[in-house]
Design a protein that fits this description.
single chain, mainly alpha, Arc Repressor Mutant, subunit A, Four Helix Bundle (Hemerythrin (Met), subunit A), 2 domains, two-stranded antiparallel ribbon, 10 helices, about 5% strand, elongated, DNA-binding transcription factor activity, DNA binding, DNA-binding, transcription regulation
Length: about 230
């Protein structure tokens, strides 16, 4: 079991056992991590995932609370996740991305003007170390759009942009649940940028393929385990 999944299960067990009741505030992060035998980072990721499905409510400056756990509240969140998991057609979007984006990335390595490469670098470096999942996904979308635009083919850029929306939910869910997904995304983006900046189209194509195929493989596994 992934570390984040284990953390989620431990928090859920506290709620099921009645140790945490609707409206209760969670103990301090450091205290709860020690009590559950978790790292603070794993606990933090678990809280993000449970807040997404409305089991927890994170209130800035006030703490993290168990929600009312009202059936309708949880049902709305469950419907979101069930829709996502049932909609395996999203795999088809990833398959098309895996065909188009590596080609666009290779073209960008050949055609992208130096000033646009520097702007791409700014997008990458603008992401804070403690970025939220929303910030990470927004940065990811901008990064890929600029590469597609840098390929110098308007039709190709439009096609790639049109594929971004249907795959956004998968990106968010992966970032919340797969251990190391955030760090891996950062590393692969940096490798793609370096290949483009050093004008190595074959390497740029390879890194883009690895990057997109990684999310696609995770999604296939997630759907298979349902």
């Amino acid at each position: 079991m992934a570390v984040t999944d284990e953390a989620i299960e431990k928090i859920k067990a506290m709620i099921v056992a009645g140790e945490l009741r609707p409206g209760d505030r969670l103990p301090r992060e450091a205290d709860l991590a020690e009590r559950l035998g978790l790292s603070r980072n794993s606990l933090r990721e678990a809280v993000k995932a449970l807040s997404l499905i409305r089991v927890l409510d994170v209130r800035q400056g006030d703490g993290t609370f168990v929600t009312s756990l009202a059936p309708q509240l949880l049902l709305d969140a469950l419907n979101f996740i069930v829709d996502f998991h049932r909609d395996d057609t999203v795999l088809e979007f990833f398959e098309v991305r895996r065909i188009l984006e590596p080609a666009a990335t290779a073209l960008a390595a050949e055609r992208m003007p130096d000033d646009q490469i520097e702007e791409l670098r700014k997008v990458l470096t603008s992401l804070p170390a403690d970025a939220t999942i929303d910030e990470l996904v927004a940065n990811d979308l901008e990064f890929h759009h600029r590469i597609a635009d840098g390929a110098g083919n308007g039709l190709l850029c439009s096609l790639i942009d049109s594929l971004s929306g249907p795959t956004t939910r998968a990106r968010i869910w992966r970032g919340l649940t797969q251990s190391g997904a955030v760090e891996k995304t950062r590393e692969q983006h940096a490798a793609i940028l370096d290949a483009i900046a050093t004008r190595r189209p074959d390497l740029a194509r390879s890194w883009a393929t690895v990057h997109i195929a990684g999310v696609e493989d995770w999604l296939r596994l997630a759907l298979h385990e349902l």
